[in-house]
């Protein structure tokens, strides 16, 4: 069963930038889990 997933372009750009800077997956994961970042649903940002 194939499942299509939509990729958030901004997220992709951030990950590409992290790779260019030489950050490891572990470093990115550590940053993401050690900082409380607000989570927005697409519906929330569309009305802004």
Automatic annotation (TrEMBL):
Domain of life: Bacteria
Leader peptide range in chain numbering: none
Domain Sin: 1-36
InterPro entries attached to this UniProt entry: SinR/SinI_dimer_dom, SinR/SinI_dimer_dom_sf
Cross-referenced Pfam families: SinI
Record-given protein name: Anti-repressor SinI family protein
Species, as recorded: Bacillus songklensis
């Amino acid at each position: 069963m194939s499942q299509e997933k939509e990729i958030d372009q901004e997220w992709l750009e951030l990950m590409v930038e992290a790779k260019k800077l030489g950050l490891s997956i572990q470093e990115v994961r550590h940053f993401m889990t050690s900082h409380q970042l607000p989570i927005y649903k697409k519906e929330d940002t569309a009305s802004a």
